[in-house]
Design goal:
This protein is α+β, with helices and mostly antiparallel strands and about 280 residues long. The chain has one domain (about 1-275): Putative xylanase fold, CATH 1.10.3670.10. Helix content is about 35%, strand content about 20%. It contains 10 helices and 11 strands. The protein has helices at about 1-10, 25-35, 45-55, 85-100, 105-115, 130-140, 165, 175-190, 205, 260-265; strands at about 15, 20, 75, 145, 155, 195-200, 215-220, 225-235, 240-245, 250-255, 270-275. The strands form 2 sheets. Strands 4, 5, 6, 7, 8, 9, 10 and 11 form an 8-stranded antiparallel β-sheet that branches. The chain has a 3-stranded mixed β-sheet with strand order 1-2-3. Strand 9 (about 240-245) and strand 10 (about 250-255) form a beta hairpin.
């Protein structure tokens, strides 16, 4: 038994459904399930749960590219090393299963896959929602969230994504020419949609419309890219801050500066898109 335990810690766990989850991640997931199962969530909104669960991951190490595994597309479950997007997906998935009182590994696996992939179906590499504006659109179509950017004062956002198809050498999976063609088609579809953003200079004037638990997607001042960073709105001392997996600090943290000041300190960040999670029926 001791040998089996050691092997599970050292090597990833593969299921028949092509899911990758290390023993350490599974242990942490079970611990979070245990905590959630003892928490009365009936009076908590999805925003409430998102903030609460998000803070449980404070100081979790920042690890990028955890989803990039060789071979066919696999569902990667990693709770011990998070980038900004996987942090968001982990917290949302946990909040959704908690609201429904579903605390099995299979429940989590199904919900994460539904969130991460186009129309909730994992196929090949291009089926993953790589562009976060596409992630927002598709998850709004699924009923998971609502893009409220326009409602809080946002203006038209020129979304001309083309970075992935223009730089396939940066993505090992795009050595497959068919995948590049599929990505180009996805980019064309994204460009055909109407998006809104709140320019960073206007955030302070509309900050009171952002609620703790809202999802914050930070737009980037590049013609061919949409979103540079994502996180969760959290209130501190009457101001909205960002709860996020930070590349700078290499961990999940709450921004020291309020959201407006945080963005003003980053020249490449042009504004934000804001989404609110839908309540489960």
């Amino acid at each position: 038994m001791r040998l089996v335990t050691i092997l599970l810690v050292l090597f990833p766990v593969f299921s028949k459904a092509q899911v990758i989850c290390s023993a350490e991640s599974r242990e942490r997931l079970d611990a979070v399930f245990s905590e959630l199962s003892q928490t009365d969530v009936s009076q908590k909104t999805m925003n409430d749960l998102t903030v609460e669960i998000g803070t449980w991951f404070l100081n979790t190490p920042y690890v990028e590219k955890t989803l990039e595994v060789s071979g066919e597309e696999k569902l990667v479950i990693n709770l011990i090393g998070l980038d900004c997007t996987t942090f968001l997906e982990t917290v949302i998935t946990l909040a959704r299963v908690a609201k429904e009182g579903r605390f099995t590994f299979g429940d989590y696996e199904h919900e994460l896959e539904f969130l991460r992939y186009r129309d909730g179906i994992r196929k090949e590499y291009p089926s993953r929602l790589h562009y976060f504006s596409d992630w927002i659109y598709n998850n709004q179509q699924k009923g998971i969230l609502k893009d409220i950017t326009r409602d809080i004062g946002g203006e038209l956002y020129p979304n001309n994504v083309a970075f992935m198809s223009g730089n396939p050498e940066l993505y090992p999976q795009l050595a497959n020419g068919e995948f590049v063609d599929q990505i180009k088609n996805i980019e064309a579809e994204i460009k055909s949609r109407t998006y809104y953003y709140l320019p960073k200079k206007d955030i302070k004037g509309h900050e009171d419309k952002i609620r703790p638990g809202d999802l914050i997607a930070i737009t980037i001042a590049m013609d061919n890219m949409d979103i540079s960073h994502v996180g969760i709105a959290i209130e501190q001392n009457g101001r909205i801050h960002l709860l996020h997996a930070s590349l700078d600090s290499k961990k999940v943290e709450i921004s020291k500066k309020p959201l407006y000041e945080y963005l003003m300190g980053h020249k490449s960040q042009s504004g934000i898109m804001v989404c609110r999670l839908s309540e489960l029926k």
